[in-house]
Amino acid sequence: MGHSSLVLAIAGIAFFLFGMGFASDNLQKLAANRIRDLLTTLGDRPLWGVVVGILMTVVIQSSGAVMSLLVGLGSAGVVTLRQVMGIIIGAAIGTTFTVQLLSLNISKYGLPLFAFSFIVYFISKKRVVRRVMSVFMGFGLLFWGLDLIGVATSDLRDARFFVDFLDYLKANPLVTVLVTSVFTAVVHSSAATIGFSMSLATTGLISLSDAIYWVYGANIGTTATALMASTGGNYVGRQVAWAHFLFKIISVGIFYFATDFFAHLIDLDSIQRNVANAHTAYNIISAILFFPFIHIGARVVEKMFPPLDSEKEFSTKFLERGTYESPSVVMAHAEREVLRMGDIVYSMVRDSLKLFEREDPDLFEKIKKRDNRVDLLNKEISLYLTSFIENSESLLQGQVIQIVSFAADLESAADVVDNSLIELANKKHALKLEFTKEAWEGLRHLHKLVVEEVELSLSAFQRRDTELASKVIYLKREVRKVEKALREGHFSRLIEGRRESINTSSIHLDVLHEYRRIAGLAANHVYGVLKDNDPYNIMPRREPNQT
User: Are residues 404 and 290 in the same domain?
Assistant: First the structure.
């Protein structure tokens, strides 16, 4: 009898969890746009955040899913910890809706509800109707699972091993909290844990005070979903998950030592209703206690879980908009930021050939991250100098235009690597193609020239040196000659019918073209360097000897 009842209880929990997940998934699909709209209205309004948290949890029917969503949004930079602190508190209140629903004596209607919903779902062709019926089918399975749990727990009263286990838990409340926390973390549902405790309390296997310890464990265990979701995110995601965990731990700590008194206060109805009311009262009182300390709590969590060095937000280093000390200082700051930007572009060009050697997702990601930084610096440099140029002299305006133009060329060169070369490398690896030995050696030679040119270009910009500027122009022309020779060599191999050349033809030619583009972009600014040092155009334009 005991073992069959245990199997029935497990089956009931399985139907309960499946039904809840099915209902939750379809509710999310029904309300996805509404949830997005709610999140865009957050701002810095904690009270509205509480309301949003309640609504989201009632709609999604899972505080764990809500918290995982917030962790993901936090990691993506869509929301901050301070914005979601209110939602964390509101989500706790929102979970009480499901538990209150479970406390109503309607579990016997689970199968009829499922059957009716399935018939309507099967007959209807309307997408919205089928989605709504899917939600009701989920609730039908949920209630049926709860009914099975109730039947199983009635039979388990005669199972010695189960009764002994419950007696041990009743004698050790802290162990009860730990065990139910782990159980909730495993099944990903605090409602399942509390629903099970209701069934046990209804059959007299545990008291109201014992059931309240189950409520505590369920509330702590539900934080596991967000904690696990945060492992793949950044520091904001971790802060959101740990803020949720600390909120639950501290609130349980406050209630734990007053559990018997708490149970006495709410012992006003049937045992099922009392357990549900205990859960509701615990979450509402916790919300009231913690709400005034939302901003303080956010600061504490931010200090406890700061960003790692690799996660610190990238920003400008030398620009301070609005604090223009003098034109020379402004120009110096802007030039230093452009050189910083140039170093990033140089590293992208330097590493770009590795993209074609072997498939390396980490390198792809690093290059994309560098390109995002280049985009940010280009934007900030332009805004910084645009704000300054409005009240500056025409001579300074010319310098500003040179700096902004060079920054724009660097940004374009970075885009060539991030967009064009990465796409070509992905295509090569996807088709499992290989360059001929001659083609690869030619690419390496061309790449070396382009890298050298970019490096000299940055030095020419920094030092305003005409000799370096002339070398850059020489290298640009050399790149053009080498690129032309490599094209001709490629066409010769095509005529010979070399299979590798035929297969990689479009990729090879495009790579040659993109490196030539980078060389042209890197050289654009040096003509301004030559002009600045030779305003009357009397300096002979002689290409330097190759060194």
Answer: no
pLDDT at res. 543 = 46
Question: Which residue from 354, 345, 280 is spatially nearest to 521, judged by alpha carbons?
Answer: 345
* CATH code, 463: 1.20.58.220
Q: With 80 as the cut, is the pLDDT of residue 533 above it? A: no
Q: Are residues 415 and 288 in the same domain?
A: no
* Residue 187: closest CA among 221, 148, 154: 221
Tokens of 187: 């099944």
The residue type of 74 is: G
Q: Distance between CA atoms of 225 and 235, rounded to whole angstroms?
A: 17
- Residue 78's alpha-carbon distances to 38, 294, 371, 499, in angstroms, are 13, 19, 20, 49
Residues 6+ apart with CB under 8 A from 296: none
159 located within any domain: no
User: Whole domain around residue 93: which residue ranges?
Assistant: 2-154+171-306
Q: Which tens digits make up the pLDDT trace of 160-201?
A: 788 888 899 999 999 999 999 999 888 888 888 898 898 888
Nearest CA-CA partner of 218 in 247, 176, 170, 255: 176
Q: How many domains does the chain have?
A: 2
